[in-house]
Amino acid sequence: MQKQTEPLIFIVEDNPVYNKLIVNYLQSKKSYRIESFFSGEECLQRIDEHPDIVIQDYLLEGIDGIAVLKQVKKIHPQTEFIFLSGQDSVDVAVNTLKLGAYDYIVKDQMALKKMLDKITKILALQALVRSNKRYKTGIIVFFIVLAVIVSLLFGLTFLFPGKFHFV
User: Fold this and answer.
1) 3-state DSSP helix/strand/coil percent for the chain, to nearest 5?
2) In a domain, 162, yes or no
């Protein structure tokens, strides 16, 4: 199976028109793999695909956005959430952030641009974290190899004292 390089973004929006608007906007701007859902239940059924970002409405039919956030964060804590909602309440926004959402954007004329900016920031941060992990792994491997070489040299010195001399 070929590894996908484009970030996977789940869109969870129960309004079909706004759902399509978000999908089309993102597809027109960048190369993303986008999966679109009209309910939280549909999203959760496909969560094993490990989305990088979930963009969702706060109020959904059936399971609401907060319940989706909580369930996904239990399984995939690295998945970031952006709430894109018509709920213009500071309490609602603060609550979503406290529960682990990356951001909360009120649906207005600038919402899609704000959303794209947040996606760019999230993906840059995720790339930095991956790079940092690779760097740390490289350092650890280097020191392990160095320790093995030093151990071998000391071992050879003790096994063959006449052939190996360290000044």
Assistant:
1) 55, 15, 30
2) no
Residue 149 C-alpha from the chain's centroid: 38
How many domains, the chain?
A: 1
41-75 as b/e, with b when 16 or more CB fall inside 10 Å? ebbbeebeeebbbbbbbbebeebebbebbeebbee
CB 42 within 8 Å of CB 17:
no
Flag whether 22 is in a domain.
yes
Residue 25 contacts residue 116 (beta carbons within 8 Å): yes
Asked if 9 and 26 count as a contact pair (C-beta separation under 8 A), the reply is yes
- The pLDDT tens digits along the chain (167 residues) read 444 578 999 999 999 999 999 999 999 987 889 999 999 999 999 999 999 999 999 988 888 899 999 999 999 999 999 999 888 889 889 989 999 999 999 999 999 999 999 999 999 998 898 888 898 999 999 999 999 998 888 888 888 777 766 65
- 42: CATH: 3.40.50.2300
φ, ψ (nearest 5 deg) of residue 98: -60, -35
